[in-house]
Design a protein that fits this description.
The protein has helices at about 5-15, 40-55, 125-135, 180-185, and strands at about 25, 35, 40, 60-65, 75, 80, 90, 100-110, 110-120, 155-165, 170-175. It is about 20% helix and about 30% strand. The radius of gyration is 17 Å and the shape is globular.
Length: about 190
């Protein structure tokens, strides 16, 4: 796939005669919008990666899910397993890795719920699998749910990350507003 962040950065670096390697600290599922952290040098990458591995980076998401979530808030603590190494799909399974997702219902609309989520652990597809497990697949998630004419991707967005600066140890908070395609669904133009 040519339209990736890595390819875009490599092109930008080449066009601007910048000699740097692209060092991703985190990743987002394909078709998830939001914050991606990229380190400028190997030391920063190592420091930030260690924060990610120790789950000290706080990651917050918005999702629009199918159905009305009745509880104001809750915690999902179901383990997630990849049954087949050849397949990208994950499931809740007792033999899986520990996964913890906190959620808070924000608003409801036309049999959908805008929910804030905090990843305590950070496994691949964690939010998508956990939301499916509680009966509320993410709108537009064709892997774990159904297509939706309201959006051409899953309605999942990383809106905030908190971590320590790799050099100064200062608290860093990065935010990213809800994208237009998700704002349209909830009627927030």
């Amino acid at each position: 796939q040519d339209d990736t962040i890595a390819n875009g950065l490599a092109y930008y670096f080449k066009q601007n005669n910048i000699h740097r390697k692209v060092r991703f600290v985190n990743r987002l599922d394909m078709n998830t919008s939001g914050i991606v952290i990229i380190a400028k040098n190997p030391y920063a990458h190592n420091q930030l990666s260690n924060q990610m591995k120790s789950n000290t980076v706080e990651k917050f998401y918005y999702a629009i899910v199918e159905g009305i979530i009745e509880k104001d808030q809750g915690t999902i603590t179901e383990p997630i397993l990849r049954l087949n190494p050849e397949d990208i799909i994950r499931i809740v399974h007792p033999l899986g890795k520990e996964c913890i997702t906190e959620f808070k219902r924000e608003k409801t609309y036309n049999n959908m719920t805008l929910v804030k989520l905090k990843l305590i652990t950070g496994r691949t597809h964690q939010i998508r699998v956990h939301m499916k497990h509680i009966g509320h697949t993410i709108v537009g998630d064709t892997l774990y749910g159904n297509e939706n004419s309201l959006i051409d991707r899953q309605a999942l967005h990383c809106y905030e990350m908190k971590f320590k600066h790799p050099i100064t140890n200062e608290d860093i908070v990065i935010t990213c507003p809800l994208p237009e395609d998700m704002r349209k669904i909830i009627g927030d133009k």
